[in-house]
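Technical appendix A lists one of the benchmark inputs used to test multi-chain prediction within the project. The record comprises two sequence entries:
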Amino acid sequence: MDDIRSRPTLAQLDADGAIEEALDAVAGSSRGQFLRSAALGSAALLAGLSDTVAAAPGPKRDTAILNYALAFEYLQAGFYTEAESLGTIRAMGVERERWARTLGAHERAHVRILKDVLGRRAAGKPFFDYRGVTEDPDDFTRTAVAMEDLTVALLGGQAPRVSDRSLRAAFFSLLTVEARHAAWARRIVRVEPVVSAFDAPKTLAQVDRVIRSTRFRARRPKKEGRGSPRFTG
Amino acid sequence: MREVRHPGVIESVSEGRSRRYFVAGGLLGGVALAGALTGLGRLAAAQGPSREQDERILNFMLRLEYLQSAFYAEAESQGVLDGELAEFARVVGEHERRHVARLRELLGDAAESEPELDLEEVTSTPDAFVEAAVALEDTGVSAFIGQGSNLTVEGVAAVTPLVSVEARHAAWILAIAGRDPAPAPADPAASVAGVQSALEQAGLTTSGS
């Protein structure tokens, strides 16, 4: 059942292989299940936005970049919020619980900050389906580690492309917090918090490929039997 | 698009003392860096990005990296650290040396040379080391945020991969110290004066001389 097609997902998220290695030890048999659930996908995080993001420097491109960052923060915030509301975080032990709750609160604050900065230009909240990853503490933790490192690569890649200087300063303030999250997360799973003297940036196309592979971005709200959304984040 | 006005996003790390005081004290006070002091004055009055301004900002960052690099080298030679703390000093010290090399490469002939620094006291015990390392890394993060937006696009692209690594260092040492690795949803920016004040309070630099 350890579907070979699913393997590239974690490899993309975890370029140095350290997380996969460490999490094999931590999570053991649940790894196959995680890879299956996380590796099949198709919907781009923000279809249609990439053209504007590729445009010439200026306010329009800044807005597009910030909206992409906003979508990504929505993805993260929803992920932690869902794990919290499902009781997954409560079951993880004191140290990890504190870590996960802090990160969730920060990602929700990042959504608010970016929405506030964008004002009326803020894009709407995308729909996500975390495909069960938020239900299991090990799956949740390993995905969190990968997602935080990916955010650092995303924001690091976009910071130099933001033209407006005050926006760029705000971008830096978020980037360094995501980097703190990533280091903290890595230490939680007992892998090196800082693998290199320089964090390698990722292009939006690279980030989008990773997100697509998780299939976390859903096309429309998932209908539940209760008739209400599974969570709001 | 509105201006960013979130508490902590653009605020300086520490407030209070007059700029003249800090210019007199110097970033690496106790160290003769007359050139550095005039550089700081101009840095604080930053206008639009330019190559010349990039040089001043990158040299400011280089001074911070010199301080960090020397601090970890001194800690390793003192040999009072063990366990994860020793690993932290070794790994981070190596990163800071590579940051120094990268900044010197970017600056070329304009790069300032490494000052003599006395960091014996702040590395004499594990507790002193942790306190100083926390201040050094957190201050480095805030310094980069404060000056990063004043750089040209090329300058930003060059320093960004290094900025997030400083933030990882900060989180790591805070975690080792049993403190909150990510104390706020947005990291504060520090003015040059704020950076000097924070380093001085941590005993990493001294005023006067």
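The helical segments of chain B are 19-25, 34-44, 51-78, 83-107, 126-148, 153-176, 192-201. The two ends of chain B are 47 Å apart (CA to CA). Comparable benchmark entries are summarised in Table A2.
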